[in-house]
From TrEMBL:
Keywords: Arginine metabolism, Hydrolase, Manganese, Metal-binding, Urea cycle. GO terms for biological process: L-arginine catabolic process to proline via ornithine; urea cycle. GO terms for cellular component: cytosol; nucleus. It is an enzyme of class 3 (hydrolase). Pathway: Nitrogen metabolism; urea cycle; L-ornithine and urea from L-arginine: step 1/1. NCBIfam families: rocF_arginase. Binds 2 manganese ions per subunit. This is Arginase. Gene3D superfamilies: Ureohydrolase domain. Its EC number is 3.5.3.1. Belongs to the arginase family. It catalyses: L-arginine + H2O = urea + L-ornithine. One of its GO terms (molecular function) is manganese ion binding. The lineage of its organism: Eukaryota, Fungi, Fungi incertae sedis, Zoopagomycota, Zoopagomycotina.
Length: 322
């Protein structure tokens, strides 16, 4: 009898990254509330890069997309209900290349958003280096998998996973023709869902996509949920992980400064626990922290949200309680 040993990973991982590229991605055109584009600067002003250096990381700040205006086309009419597709597509294309370069150098690509439409670029970048073994853990109140037909708002931050999984390939959206659908739906898992549109529920069901909602967090506890989520996408814990963390996954009492808050979310500790468990796998190669909007809420709300944004990133990058 031979024991099952997981086959050696075939992706080109040099060593667990010790350097982190912090990509400021000031993209706000994927939704309608201004201010989300200022989050990368506010997070850095709060000392995030220094904190990561103190954790032993070599930090490289990438400000290529600190200002997205150079990518704004002169003419960008709606396509159906979808707003600013050419602009959002062009910024994501540039972002994909930045993430690719960091990953190709063996660095962890940390993207500070910006709205969640930027995940089209970040995951395109990470899959271009790590291929279809890349797992995505998507922590969010929303499933962000609307098609261009099902999107109720026309906001592209509700659509990135539909674009990445190529669920509607018969006609790629203008601006996104460059996207290569490398991410596999078996390699995607959600944690924290509680505001999923009817059309999205159907898409999740028809494509058999694994999702742990807040119901599951209540029923099983966060420890079991994270274990089941990782078992689904990464059973031997040998595959590279891209963590896409939307701050609205947290309860609005914990992280109020965000554009689409939904009550009934993750507690402070549950949010951090997800990051700690992913850090413990040693497989994190990319992370997005998105939807912090410093313009929403009062000074206390902002301080609270920015602080928790920084501490989630620190936990994912190895900070422990003891
Ligand atoms: N990344 C987010 N906060 N997404 C919110 C999406 C809300 C809604 N499902 C929509 O498609 O418009
Ligand atoms: Mn969300
Ligand atoms: Mn989101």
């Amino acid at each position: 009898m031979t024991l099952h040993t997981p086959s050696a990973p075939s992706y080109k991982r040099i060593a667990p990254p010790k350097a982190v590229g912090i990509i400021a991605a000031a993209l706000s055109a994927g939704q309608r509330k201004s201010g989300v584009d200022t989050a990368p600067i506010v997070l850095n002003e709060h000392g995030l890069s220094t904190q990561l250096e103190q954790l032993g990381w070599q930090v490289k700040v990438n400000d290529m997309l600190q200002n997205c205006e150079p990518w704004r086309p002169e003419f960008d009419p709606d396509v159906g209900r979808i707003k600013e597709p050419r602009f959002v597509g062009a910024v994501n294309k540039a972002l994909a290349e930045e993430v690719r370069q960091h990953c190709a150098r063996g660095e962890l690509a940390l993207t500070l958003g910006g709205d969640h439409s930027l995940a089209v670029g970040t995951i395109s970048g990470s899959t271009s280096v790590y291929g279809d073994e890349l797992c995505v853990v998507w922590v969010d109140a929303h499933s962000d998998i609307n098609s261009f037909e099902s999107s109720p708002s026309g906001n592209l931050h509700g659509c990135p996973l539909a674009i990445l999984l190529d669920l509607f390939s018969d006609k790629p959206l203008v601006g996104f023709e460059w996207v290569k659908p490398i991410l596999k739906k078996e390699r995607l898992v959600y944690i924290g869902l509680r505001d999923v549109d009817e059309g999205e529920k159907r898409i999740l069901r028809e494509n058999n996509i694994k999702a742990f909602s807040m119901y599951d967090v209540d029923k099983y506890g966060i420890g079991k949920v994270v274990e089941m989520a990782l078992d689904h996408v990464n059973p031997a814990r040998t595959l590279p992980i891209h963590l896409s963390f939307d701050v609205d996954a947290l309860d609005p009492t914990v992280a109020p400064s965000t554009g689409t808050p939904v009550r009934g979310g993750l507690t402070f500790r549950e949010g951090h626990f997800i990051c700690e468990e992913i850090a413990a796998t040693g497989q994190l190669v990319a992370m997005d922290l998105v939807e912090v909007n410093p313009s929403l809420g009062d000074k206390v709300a902002l301080e609270q949200t920015v602080k928790i944004g920084c501490s989630l990133v620190r936990c994912a990058l190895g900070e422990t309680l003891l």
